[in-house]
């Protein structure tokens, strides 16, 4: 086939397609999308001119000749077809398809172009309603001493910790180094620098935003099944190939022991990725139940206009995965700003999703100064949504910033946030004592109390307190604290110096308070790492500072109530704090459990009966709270994904009307 070269299609709206000149008079033809793709190639640095010609030879290669450049840029036709087909500026061999090329008529004339396109993007024919693979929770592994899985995990820990890694910004698929770096250290060994990472400045943030917007139209045009396939593959990569590496990064970087890393970095990350796929199909299937005669009603779920800003915390690798992946699955493009204390694990997770096929520009990885970046993002008119997990104070500040900029935005931004908690265990006199004690130790002290759901206040009846105290203190004092490289340690370090200082200040406040007694722990040291012994404070004031304020560390405050005052204590539980995240009641008396559950209705978005107030499982207990604890959009459920789509109702009338009057006008 003879090559054809058309000058400046970017300016004239013309292109050469399959050796045949096609102009904008044929809007259904895929060639009319080529100029837009060239603009995006130019924005991404793949071509160096703003004009030029395109030709396709023998159905095998695409030639891009930017204006003023002598040498053509040659791209394999199937790669170009993929970009054309999905309008994604992304050229990855793993995502190519000869079949798709044939459908678009770009391979050796063996197939003709199908008219399934629009001026805003190509609509690939949907030839079936696909059935998803069965979605189940990822099984947890036990990592018993001497097991192969423990040996493999600890080998990954040793390998990952053997050197200092460098984490770049990733903008439009390119690793960007700006020379402004910070360090992430091992909180259990302050002398060990796990990684250095680049800090995005205003220029990089702007490039990330513009790149995300450039990739958006192509990503949202990709059929949902293809997006689902990418995230299902990411889940499988986490569950298998990268399981131990991601866990190792969470252990060394965030101070998690083996079990905490397993239920976070491994199983919960996988569960979010898989169950979100299932929930996305459920959402797309939500269609009007009725259409009047001669009418077809339907609903489609559009991605938000603009970009999503995902700001993730240090304490759960899986939360970072979900904050970025959930909106992306629904067709949005995302700026992911990871916690400075979790850059290593978050980057590994990000890289896994790229390997799974997330196109360049769809997720931009931009560590940096949170305040400066957030201010810049919130001033952009295309800001569409905040997806946040972190402190209540920061979230409220962000909300105010968004409100101040509301007139800038194209649409009202969706604000989705999960924040702090002051979570409780309420023990009824009928409770199983051993169960309540052990659940409380786990709920208060696993992962050093750094879960937003951690138990921070405990209410125990006076009739049980003697035995309860003995077992609670004995169990707490028996906890092994130390480096996460020793599998026997139940607790590791808190995350950093700021957290260490805040928590120890609360301990000293209690020590010097006349209505408090430290009955376990109270010791700490930051000589080598940020280690704090699990601490129990007994108070006679149910409204004490330590009963009201979030500490986010291994400090449990206990109030002992008179058995006859159970109802009054329920009221106290509900009035003490502004939060509403998690809570639990322990009672063998069914009526007492139901009574407490009913009276405490609005005190917890996740409520537990005879179980600890931590450990929500994706697909089983959707997580989130209200009041000062967040917007309660329930990650791990379809409700969250609904926040990242904008439904459009469509009514198609099959019959024509013969006049404009109604029967009542006669």
From TrEMBL:
Q: Provide the reaction this enzyme catalyses.
A: L-glutamate 5-semialdehyde + NAD(+) + H2O = L-glutamate + NADH + 2 H(+)
Q: Name one GO cellular component term.
A: mitochondrial matrix
PANTHER family named among the record's database cross-references? DELTA-1-PYRROLINE-5-CARBOXYLATE DEHYDROGENASE 1, ISOFORM A-RELATED, DELTA-1-PYRROLINE-5-CARBOXYLATE DEHYDROGENASE 2, ISOFORM A-RELATED
- Keyword Cytoplasm in the entry? The reply is no
Keywords from the named record? NAD, Oxidoreductase, Proline metabolism
Q: Could you identify this protein by its name? A: Multifunctional fusion protein
The pathway this protein participates in, as annotated, is: Amino-acid degradation; L-proline degradation into L-glutamate; L-glutamate from L-proline: step 2/2
Identify the residues that the record assigns to the Class II aldolase/adducin N-terminal domain, covering every copy.
34-88
What does the record give as EC number? 1.2.1.88
- Supply one GO BP term: L-proline catabolic process to L-glutamate
Instruction: Output the NCBIfam families linked to this UniProt entry.
Output: D1pyr5carbox1
Molecular-function GO terms, alphabetical: L-glutamate gamma-semialdehyde dehydrogenase activity
To which protein family does this belong?
Answer: Belongs to the aldehyde dehydrogenase family.
């Amino acid at each position: 086939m003879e090559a054809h070269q058309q000058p400046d299609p970017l300016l004239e709206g013309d292109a050469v397609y399959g050796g045949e000149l096609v102009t904008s008079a044929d809007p259904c033809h895929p060639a009319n999308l080529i100029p837009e793709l060239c603009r995006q190639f130019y924005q991404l640095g793949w071509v160096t001119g703003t004009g030029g010609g395109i030709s396709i030879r023998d159905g095998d290669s695409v030639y891009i000749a930017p204006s003023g450049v002598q040498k053509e840029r040659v791209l394999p036709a199937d790669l170009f077809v993929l970009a054309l087909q999905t309008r994604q500026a992304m050229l990855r061999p793993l995502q190519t398809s000869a079949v798709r090329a044939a459908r678009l008529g770009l391979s050796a004339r063996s197939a003709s172009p199908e008219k399934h396109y629009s001026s805003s993007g190509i609509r690939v024919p949907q030839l079936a309603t696909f059935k998803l693979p069965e979605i189940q929770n990822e099984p947890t592994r036990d990592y018993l001493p001497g097991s192969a899985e423990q040996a493999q995990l600890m080998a990954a820990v040793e390998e990952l910790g053997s050197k200092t890694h460098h984490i770049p910004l990733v903008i439009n698929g390119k690793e960007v180094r700006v020379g402004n770096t910070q360090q992430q250290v091992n909180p259990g060994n302050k002398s060990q620098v796990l990684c250095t990472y680049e800090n995005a400045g205003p220029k990089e943030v702007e490039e990330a935003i513009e790149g995300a917007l450039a990739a958006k139209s192509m990503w949202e045009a990709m059929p949902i099944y293809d997006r689902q396939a990418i995230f299902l593959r990411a889940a499988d990569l986490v569950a298998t190939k990268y399981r131990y590496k991601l866990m190792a990064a969470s252990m060394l970087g965030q101070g998690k022991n083996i079990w905490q890393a397993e239920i976070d970095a491994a199983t919960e990350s996988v569960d979010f990725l898989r169950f979100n796929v299932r929930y996305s199909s459920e959402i797309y299937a939500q269609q009007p139940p009725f259409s009047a005669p001669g009418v077809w009603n339907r609903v489609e779920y559009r991605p938000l206009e603009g970009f999503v800003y995902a700001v993730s915390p240090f304490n759960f690798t899986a939360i970072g995965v979900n904050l970025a992946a959930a909106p992306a699955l629904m067709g949005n493009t995302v700026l992911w700003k990871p916690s400075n204390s979790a850059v290593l694990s978050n980057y590994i997770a990000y890289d896994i999703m790229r390997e799974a096929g997330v196109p360049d520009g769809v997720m931009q990885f931009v560590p940096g100064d949170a305040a400066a970046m957030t201010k810049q993002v919130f001033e952009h008119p295309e800001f569409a949504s905040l997806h946040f997990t972190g402190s209540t104070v920061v979230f409220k500040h962000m909300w105010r910033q968004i409100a101040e900029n509301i007139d800038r935005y194209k649409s009202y931004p969706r604000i989705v946030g999960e924040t702090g908690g002051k979570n409780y265990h309420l023990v009824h006199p009928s409770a199983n004592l051993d169960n309540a004690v052990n659940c409380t130790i786990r709920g208060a002290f696993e992962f050093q109390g750094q879960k937003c759901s951690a138990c921070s206040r405990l209410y125990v009846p006076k009739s049980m307190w003697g035995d309860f105290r003995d077992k609670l203190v004995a169990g707490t004092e028996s906890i092994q604290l130390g480096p996460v490289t020793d599998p026997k340690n139940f607790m590791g370090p808190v995350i950093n110096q700021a957290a260490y200082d805040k928590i120890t200040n609360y301990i000293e406040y209690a020590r010097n308070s006349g209505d408090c007694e430290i009955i376990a722990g109270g010791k700490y040291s930051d000589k080598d790492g940020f280690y704090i012994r699990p601490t129990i404070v007994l108070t006679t004031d149910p409204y004490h500072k330590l009963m009201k304020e979030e500490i986010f560390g291994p400090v449990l405050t206990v109030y002992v109530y008179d058995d006859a005052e159970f109802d009054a204590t329920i009221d106290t539980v509900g009035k003490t704090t502004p939060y509403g995240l998690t809570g639990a009641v322990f009672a063998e008396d069914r009526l007492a459990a139901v009574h407490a559950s009913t009276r405490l209705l609005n005190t917890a978005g996740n409520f537990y009966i005879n179980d600890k107030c931590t450990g929500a499982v994706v697909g089983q207990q959707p997580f989130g709270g209200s009041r000062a604890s967040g917007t309660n959009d329930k990650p791990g459920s379809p409700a969250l994904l609904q926040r990242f789509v904008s439904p459009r109702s469509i009514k198609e009338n099959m019959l024509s009307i013969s006049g404009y009057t109604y029967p009542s006008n006669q």
